[in-house]
Amino acid sequence: MSLTGTPTQPVIVMQSVSEAAPALPDYAALLAQDERAQLRRLRRQADRDRFVLGRGLARSLLAAATGKPAGSLRFARNSHGKPRLEGAGGIAFNISHSDDLVLVAMAQDCEIGVDVERHRPGLDFDALGRFIFTEAERAAVRACDPAERVTGFFRQWVFKEALVKALGTGLARDPRRFQIRRDAGDAIAEFVGGEADDVGPGWRLAGLDAPKGYSAALAIRPRAAGLCGAHPILT
Fold this sequence. Notes:
Blueprint: E1 2-4, E2 11-16, H1 17-20, H2 24-28, H3 33-40, H4 45-66, E3 75-77, E4 83-85, E5 91-98, E6 101-108, E7 110-118, H5 125-129, H6 135-142, H7 149-167, E8 178-183, E9 186-191, E10 204-207, E11 214-222
Antiparallel strand pairs: 1-2, 2-6, 3-4, 5-6, 7-11, 8-9, 10-11
């Protein structure tokens, strides 16, 4: 398990499902009744294991932050399905998973989103990108060296998805209303839609260290000035 952060900074955990297998029964015991019902609806064992690990890690981190027993924590969802901790006192969290990896992030007084994706060669990346990328983003992926195009696509994807998740709107609004561009190596969110800007300024986007064959990213914004310190593993 990879764990980083301090009590005053975002905390990020990345763990392999296969390595965490011995702990899954203990994590499953922490789940609330509605989570157990959601777990039963998952048909594939791999999906069930990822769900248990994600919720188990989140509950463990949130319990440490709040001082409450992990099994007593209760979650609610916003109108677009993003989970939040009831009575959180300003704590936000987010969960992502792909194949054998689960990623969980937690922060105080910030909006936060994370995404992790396993690289999957052989996809029609240009066709896929039409649904989430702007033309400029698709052009940036196409401009990658052919040998790096898979990595380029998923690196762009995780930045975009992390911000979508931090915003908490899911795909209810067109993800092409903003784009992620690079400026001197930094990833910057830029609103390009014709309607009212619901993205806003102040977002910090960064890639996260991930095993070979995966890309991961974080999107974070303080709810007030001076909060959400820099994260030590941002790259």
